[in-house]
Every structure is written in structure tokens, then in C-alpha cells.
Amino acid sequence: MNAPFAPERADATIISHADLHDDALSDRIAAFVEDRYGSPFHLPEWLVAIERGTGQRACGLVAERAGQIIGWLPLTLVHSPLFGRALVSSGFAVDGGPIASEPHVAQRLADAACELAVRHSCAEVELRGGATPGGWEVVTGKHCGFVTDLAADDEAQLLAIPRKQRAEVRRSLKNPLTVTVGVAERDREAHYACYAASVHNLGTPVFPRSLFDAVLRNFHERADILTVWEGDQPLASVLTLYHQGTAYPFWGGGVWRAREARANERMYYALMCHARDAMACARFDFGRSKTGSGPYHYKRNWGFEPQPLAYSRWSAPGAEARDVDPTSDAFARKIALWKALPLPVANRLGPIIARGLA
């Protein structure tokens, strides 16, 4: 896996497989990601956490010239008995794709990923972000991202929310709810309970808790869990990443009671204030949602403008593209059956399936 791809000339760019367990190389890659304003999903810490939490292999392609990194493509080698094999950039994330100091280097990284996919019998390579490489299929119109600036203080943040949604937030502030932030076992248990209940209600399998533990461990002070409580009962909880002045609430959800108590409204407003004051963030990335879906409209209600996302896909010759989109028509009946499962059963079976939903 560590042999470099052949350079075009003696002094040309060399593309090689990155050993993400080499701390020195990982530090160099992370510095390059920071310099090129990559996302947290480009970081080696993310890839290694995915590997530790799901068993899917962390890898990546690094481009160097004269000993300097000039390009990086994070990759997760995903294998699932249900969904086949694929290289994904970046696994279990909403962003990825090559970052490079020169456009032709990004193309070479994409070409090398295709070669790597063939070597490992992968049906496809998926890039979640970045420019579409030449000869690849572009997938547009399915998802939108939501990002905006945070306001200067709590009151300004409240006033930045459109009137109808602001009224819901004000009602949440009057309810007897408390908010905690931390990464202790109590925080993790509360988060997993809320998140598992939420995705079960949506009809999708829950990820293994080991995934969340691994991300928290690798990101250290750059990740935390914010939970809204009613007495001793957690109603809503979200795990957030903080990267280069932006908050990324990534895995969040609530129990049925959260809707009536408006715990989700309290959670996201509290998180915006926490991200600004405690984490020195200036921007809030609400993540992606399927275009026209309930979460899509919910985020618009908060005043976020949808930004269409474009992903890129390359399929191996003769291979059919994977379908791991739980909102596709092919999954409608499976989703209905999953919702009917008792929650304890779904929580036992879900992680086995979800490991392949990178």
C-alpha cells in the first residue's frame, strides 16, 4: 500500500499512499489541510477515528514535490456485505475530495484513486466536494449545505433567527430545561440515547457508539456534546466539531418528547451561543440535508440559505453504482420495516448495518 505511483518525470509530483499511523506524516497533512482551508473531514484524525469506530480502513493519497506536500485526498476503504466496496472521500462525512495547490494535482490524485479502487475491487470512488475531475460523473441537486455567520452576542443571535422560528426559540427558553456541555460518560450516554431514538424514528440504522467515542478521542478539545435535559432525562443532544472558526454540529437528535418541549430549538440556539463564546467560532455549518426534505426546511426556518452541493463519482468498468442513500425510493419499504422494530432491537442490529453506510 505504501509504494508510490510512478511520477511523470524525474522531478515531477510523486503521489503515494499515506500511512496515517505515521504521526509525523499525519501532522504534515493536517498542516496542509489547515493551510488550504480544508474541512475537518479532510483531517487524518477524522479518517483514523472512522477506522477505529467502524472498522472501515483509513487511507489516503498524498502528492509531494521536492519534499513538500502539494495535494491530499482523504479516503475511506468501505466494505459492506450489503452495499459492496467503495473508496469514499471522506467516509461517514459530508465533505471531502482532493485539495491541492494546483488543479492538475487534484486531477492526478483522482486518477490515482481510480487505480487504487481497481486494485481493491471497489465498485466506485465517491468524492464529497471539490471540483469534479475530468471524466467523472457529477451528482447535483440531491443535497444542500447550510452555513452562515454567527451574531455578535446572544440577543443578536436571537434576532438573526426569522420571526416564526424565533418565537419557537423564545418558548423553549421559558421551558424548565437545562443545558450541559461535556464529553464525560454521562454526556456520551445521553447523546447516544437521543441520537439512536432520532434515527430510529427516521427509519435508519444507528451508527455504533464506538464511532462517536473515537471521534471525541481524536479531536480532543475540538469536539464536544451539548445536551438539553428535562430534569434527569436527556431530550436532545448533538456532537459538534470545531475547525478553523466554524462549528459543525454533526450528529444530533432528540426523543419524541423533544418536539413538545422544543428541546431541539433550545439545543441549536444554545450551541450557537456556546460556539461563539466558548469555542471562538464565527461561523455555523448546519450540515447537509436532502433537497426539499423536512430537515432542509427546518434549517431554512432558522434563516440559513441552502447551497446546492455537487459530488463526483467514478464507477469501475462494468460495475453498478452503489445506492446507500436512505432517502431513495429503493429504501422506502426497508425504512418502514425498520421503524416498526422495537428500539432495543434496532440499537443492537443497527451498528452492524450502519458500518457500511459510509
SSE map:
Blueprint: E1 14-17, H1 23-35, H2 44-54, E2 57-65, E3 68-80, E4 84-89, E5 99-100, H3 103-119, E6 124-127, E7 137-149, H4 154-160, H5 163-174, E8 178-182, H6 185-202, H7 209-219, E9 223-230, E10 233-243, E11 246-254, H8 256-261, H9 263-277, E12 283-290, H10 294-301, E13 306-315, H11 332-340, H12 343-354
Parallel strand pairs: 4-6, 11-12
Antiparallel strand pairs: 1-2, 2-3, 3-4, 3-5, 6-13, 7-12, 7-13, 8-9, 9-10, 10-11
Helix pairs in contact: 2-7, 5-9
What does this structure look like?
This protein is an alpha+beta fold. It folds into two domains: 14-141 and 310-322, Gcn5-related N-acetyltransferase (GNAT) (Aminopeptidase); 151-281, Gcn5-related N-acetyltransferase (GNAT) (Aminopeptidase, 3-Layer(aba) Sandwich). The protein is 39% helix and 28% strand. It has twelve helices and 13 strands. Strands 1, 2, 3, 4, 5, 6, 7, 8, 9, 10, 11, 12 and 13 form a 13-stranded mixed β-sheet that branches. α2 packs antiparallel against α7 and α5 (163-174) crosses α9 (263-277). The longest helix is centred in the middle third of the chain and has 18 residues, at 185-202. The protein starts with 13 loop residues before the first strand and ends with a helix. The model is unreliable at 6-10 (pLDDT under 50).
